[in-house]
Each structure stands twice: as C-alpha cells, then as structure tokens.
Amino acid sequence: MGVTWSKRTQAVHAGTRRSQYGELSEALFLTQGFDYPSAEAAEARFVEPGADEFIYARFGNPTVAMFQDRIATLEGAEAAFATASGMAAVNGALMATLGAGDRVVAARALFGSCLYILEEILPRLGVEVAFVDGTDLEQWRAAVTPGTRAVFFESVSNPTLEVIDTAAVAQIAHGVGATVIVDNVFATPVFSRAIEQGADLVVYSATKHIDGQGRCLGGVILGREDDIPGPVETYMKHTGGALSPFNAWVMLKGLETLDLRVRAQAAAALEIAGALAGEARLARVIYPGLSTDPGHALMPEGGTVLSIDVAGGREAAFKLLNALKIIRISNNLGDAKSIATHPATTTHKRLSQDQRARLGITPGLIRLSVGLEDPADLIADLKSALDMI
Ligand SMILES: *Cc1c(COP(=O)(O)O)cnc(C)c1O
Q: Atom 10 of ligand 1 has which residue's CA nearest to it?
C-alpha cells in the first residue's frame, strides 16, 4: 500500500490494518496466539498462512505486521521482519546469510556488539572474518575475494561518523556475488538510500530514531521477498528474536512522526556543529552535514549525531560532560532528549587502546545525539560547559 506516496504520507498510513471496529489509530493486538475456526483451518494455516492469518506471535502478529509493512514501504524494501532489538536484527541478518567455511568482509568501525559478533561468534562457528577501513575502496577491492559470501558495514560509523560509499561497496561485493548487509542506524529511514544503492539486507535498531523517545528496544531487517520471507524470516522465527506487539505499537506510532523529528534534529545538529566549528577548545568537530566534512558528498543531510574532540583529553571531556545542564549523559541516540556520550570509557571501552586510536576514538571524543530541544539552548549549554574546562 502507498508505494507512490511520499515518505511522509507513507510513514502515517502505510501498512495500516483495521479490525471490524474500524479503529482510526493502529490497534495493539496484545496476543501471542490466534483462535482457529476449525481443526481443518488450523491445519491449513500451518501449511501456508494467508497475508492476514497468524499462528503465533514469535512468527507474526497483526500489530507487528503493520510496523513491518510500514517501514518496508518507507525504506523501499519488498519485505521486513521486526526483531526484539537492533542486535537481534544484526545477528539475524548475519546468521541467516553465513555458514561454516564462508568469508565475510566488514568495516572495522563498528558498534561494540556488532564487533563482538564478527570478532568472537562468527570465527567460533568457522566463518572467516576480514576487516577493512570502510572508507577505503581499495581495501574493499582487495579483501572482497571471489567466494566472499557477505560484506557488512555501518553506513555512517559510530562514533566517528565516517560515511561509507554504500553504492561503491555494493558494486564490489556484487561483483563476486556477495550479499551486502548494511547497518543503517545513523542514516535513519528518512535519509536512507541503501536499497537503491544496492544493499541486499538493511538493518535498523528501532530503539534509536524510530522510537525516538527512548522507551522501547526494537529492530528490523529489510530486504527482498526471496530473503524475507526466506532464510532471514525462517532463522528469526525459530530462534526467538521477535518484536513484542507492545513495542511494535510504540514503533508504529514513532514512524508517524519520524520524518518531522529527524529533520528537526538534523537541522539542529547542523546549527550546533556550525556554532562549535571555530571553537579553540575543540580539536575537531565531526559532522557530515558540514560542507568541509569528508563524508558530506555521501550524506549531505548530516544526520542527528555529531562528535566533538575536546582538546585536553579525557579530563577536559569529563569536565565538559559534568557541566552540561540540558544535555544528558547517557548512551542512547536519536532520542528527543539530547544525549552526550564518552565512547572511550563507555560504548567503546571493550576495544583496546590501539583499536580505539586506529578508529579515531580519542580520550577527548564526545558523541552528541541532538534531540528536539531549541538548538539555541543546546548551543548555550555546550558553550557554558566549554567555559568550565
Ligand atoms: C544501537 C545500535 C545497534 C544495536 O541496537 P539495539 O537496539 O541496542 O540492540 C546496532 N548498530 C548500531 C549502529 C547502533 O547504533
């Protein structure tokens, strides 16, 4: 439904299912099971359920189906499977694709838990994992050897906001028949072009911008009809990473306002990055929305997150964090509340100092997820905190 509509209209209406009551707002079907009219009907449904026929909430649920259909339409994907968290989505996409003896090539700059799956779990199962600098196409060309089964990367890396050329990497991967799996959290469905750029599977942590108000965990895997339903859905159904109907309902309502929120947050992030760009107390301001940023051509919309490198290292970064009055110290992103994170001591603590240095995660680096507050207040908060260093 609604493939010709603009994204804003799709985000409000696509995928809506109405019960016999004709409720206007999406219903929350808080049920794990479904009542079959007869034994024969139960038998038939287990052979091949119809589009509006459900068996068990681990496989599907009407509220979850509305969320899946809406986000698939928005992303321009043929199908979606909703998951309990972003990590359930990343794990599901990788596990459904890879087996013992396969090779996967991944960008080195990854979210900590993604790195754990690639560094610890996949090798244990006999998958060969190679890492590259995601922004260096020569490294991708050299590493994606014939027989490579998949490539995996975050389209915009966390927390250093390097933008990867999805179309170019997809072309390299497809040259050897590899599946392109993209973790697209920082791009958000609003700014995503992943499917048209050649991604085969796109994953989101819905916990971030899709909820957008820091309430629920959730995730989604998007792709083609032959993958979902197919190996991805089969893997997810039988391993238990399903999204709860309640969380799906929260995410559905989140999609209605996603476009407005993300665009407002990105506009504020650009304002803040511009206001901080000349700051002497900052060694670096990283934001793809700035025309001087190396990722600008690939991600001109910039996104909702920027990173600053405080001159003076960890001590100065902690002073700044502790002096903030509006911006909260936490580790979510995409939230209505602005959030500051110190990656070196929290989200990326697992990495060795060498690994952090290699990824540009310096002791002074602070990641700022820009919320829905007035950007003038956020700039004032940051400037007065900078004065406290
Ligand atoms: C948060 C995040 C995840 C994991 O999502 P959860 O919902 O926390 O499981 C994966 N990838 C990226 C890039 C993220 O930011």
A: 86
